[in-house]
């Protein structure tokens, strides 16, 4: 029998708080109150960051704590070393400098974008110990379970002397990062563009922020979601027509999320033209979980769009969003409020459709943006592009997709999210989009990854659209039918040319595969006259000159 002691435990229950107090004491020579000078930022970091700490250096695919990133990369690696970096985006070269210098050792992240090739090289060279590549919401969730940061380096537009932070439209990841860190006795340091007496609105209360550093220049933010209409091709317009007439209209999709890319930009720009002529206004595409895409401006101005909640902001859109509070979520100060955690949840549970592009699709419909030499990360696509099994509210689109997937009228009624991959059969440099096996499978083997990095699993995909037509995978009843449906829209790729023509024609007769002509679409009508705006300058005009495009998109 095991004896149960009634004596009080001798364990100390506030070690994290004691550690925090020691760090704050060590940092005190480098700050006056909460304010630290930019010249002392490196010393401040050496005082508060301990070897082996989990550190979140905030930055996703948009705003970046670039000054603090550079200061962290400049610390003495004999003092600060073996860090476990837990952050959404590995986007800046300074992020990888941490690993080259031995300041950081382990990495858990979501998105890498421009550093994808460099991360692959660093992994192969043994410079990085990879924890996992997460989705955004997955990593945010782990901040509250087993990846809670000891130190968070965040970024804001402004702060007051009490540490209250104003993020403006770029709130993004900050609230979730700071809450996880601050309430588990971690240290929060913010770089800001300016110090003010009173912030326009409090996005993060000052009692969650330990130090504020006035950066010498405004933080870096990437205009990631801007697509110039002039670059949209007729093939992409044809695919957009297929999406609207083949999916949006018959399912009556009102609540949706668009991935990033020219295909979805084309859809947004033909809502006020092509979809208007089809009589679909008010029947489709009214409520979005979406970053403020400039290509959505004509649809907003013509009354198509009723509401948009955003993961983050977009460069140049501030004044336009401020002037459209009926459409965008805005604070009492008038500026738009974004939140990546909230919008990821909205996109997962409150929308009926996700549509986006990818680099590769295999014969089961699995897709990935990882290649043999590039680890691009996932971002939010795997969550947006998945069927949430925990959803319990109905909509016409969700129920119709569920009925098609079940194929049995006697089955218990269940819904199904529409997950659409819209791609061209050949991508950049004529690389085939459709492959027998994803490059990411080989990549996983070469790096000894426990889990092959698949962006969207095939059993979540409901439709695939290419310039050749549309495959409705919900209507496939066997793995062979599914494979042939994918081959049937894979064009002249090796995958497409290996199709069973008889089976493909049978699938077409059952409307599993639909060509443009089956939907009454003449490819010759897919031209730029359908775009509500054909240039960035025309988007400006649609906005009443409230949209202020970044200089890289101005050619006038």
UniProtKB/TrEMBL annotation:
Any single Pfam family the record assigns to this protein: Mal_decarbox_Al
Comp. bias regions, Polar residues: 1-12
Record-level Gene Ontology MF annotations: transferase activity
Region (Disordered): 1-35
Superkingdom, taxonomy of origin: Bacteria
Gene3D superfamilies, A to Z: Glutaconate Coenzyme A-transferase
Name of protein: Malonate decarboxylase subunit alpha
Organism the protein comes from: Xanthobacter dioxanivorans
Gene that this sequence comes from: mdcA
């Amino acid at each position: 029998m095991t004896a149960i002691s009634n004596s009080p435990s001798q364990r100390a229950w506030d070690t994290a708080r004691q550690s925090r107090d020691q760090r704050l004491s060590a940092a005190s020579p480098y700050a006056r109150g909460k304010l630290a000078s930019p010249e002392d930022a490196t010393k401040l970091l050496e005082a508060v960051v301990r070897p082996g700490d989990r550190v979140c250096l905030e930055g996703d695919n948009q705003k970046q704590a670039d000054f603090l990133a550079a200061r962290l990369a400049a610390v003495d690696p004999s003092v600060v070393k073996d860090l476990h970096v837990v952050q959404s985006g590995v986007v800046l070269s300074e992020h990888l400098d941490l690993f080259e210098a031995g300041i950081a050792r382990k990495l858990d992240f979501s998105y890498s974008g421009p550093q994808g090739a460099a991360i692959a090289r660093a992994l192969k060279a043994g410079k990085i110990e990879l924890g996992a590549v997460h989705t955004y919401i997955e990593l945010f969730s782990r901040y509250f379970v087993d990846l809670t940061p000891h130190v968070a380096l965040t970024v804001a537009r402004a702060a007051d002397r009490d540490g209250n932070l104003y993020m403006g439209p770029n709130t993004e990841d900050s609230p979730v990062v700071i809450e996880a860190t601050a309430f588990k006795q971690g240290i929060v340091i913010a770089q800001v563009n300016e110090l003010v007496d009173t912030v326009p609105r409090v996005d993060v209360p000052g009692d969650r922020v330990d130090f504020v550093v006035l950066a010498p220049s405004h933080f870096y933010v990437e205009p990631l979601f801007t697509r110039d209409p002039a670059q949209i091709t007729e093939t992409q317009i044809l695919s957009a027509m297929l999406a609207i007439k083949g999916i949006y209209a018959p399912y009556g999709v009102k609540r949706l999320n668009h991935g990033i890319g020219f295909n979805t930009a084309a859809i947004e720009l033909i809502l006020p033209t092509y979809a208007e002529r089809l009589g679909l206004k008010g029947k489709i595409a009214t409520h979005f979980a979406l970053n403020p895409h400039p290509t959505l401006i004509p649809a907003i101005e013509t009354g198509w769009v009723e509401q948009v909640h955003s993961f983050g902001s977009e460069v140049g859109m501030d004044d336009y969003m401020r002037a459209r509070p009926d459409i965008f979520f805005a604070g009492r100060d008038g500026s738009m409020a974004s939140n990546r955690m909230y919008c990821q949840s909205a996109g997962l549970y409150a929308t009926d459709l996700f549509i986006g592009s990818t680099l590769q699709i295999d014969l089961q419909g699995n897709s990935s943006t990882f290649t043999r030499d590039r680890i691009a990360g996932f971002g939010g696509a795997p969550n947006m592009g998945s069927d949430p099994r925990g959803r319990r509210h109905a909509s016409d689109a969700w129920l119709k997709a569920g009925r098609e997937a079940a194929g049995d009228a006697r089955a218990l009624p269940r819904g199904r999210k529409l997950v659409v991959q819209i791609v061209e059969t050949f991508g950049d440099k004529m690389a085939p989009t459709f492959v027998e096996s994803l490059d990411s499978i080989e990549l996983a083997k070469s790096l000894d990854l426990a889990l092959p990095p698949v962006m969207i699993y095939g059993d979540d995909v409901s439709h695939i659209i290419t310039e050749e037509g549309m495959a409705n995978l919900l209507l496939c009843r066997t793995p062979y039918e599914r494979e042939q449906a994918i081959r049937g829209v894979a064009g002249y790729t090796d995958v497409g040319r290996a199709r069973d023509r008889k089976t493909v024609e049978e699938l077409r007769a059952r409307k599993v595969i639909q060509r443009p002509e089956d939907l009454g679409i003449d490819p010759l009508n897919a031209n730029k006259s359908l775009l509500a705006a054909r240039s960035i300058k025309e988007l400006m005009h649609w906005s009443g000159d409230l949209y202020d495009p970044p200089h890289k998109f101005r050619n006038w």
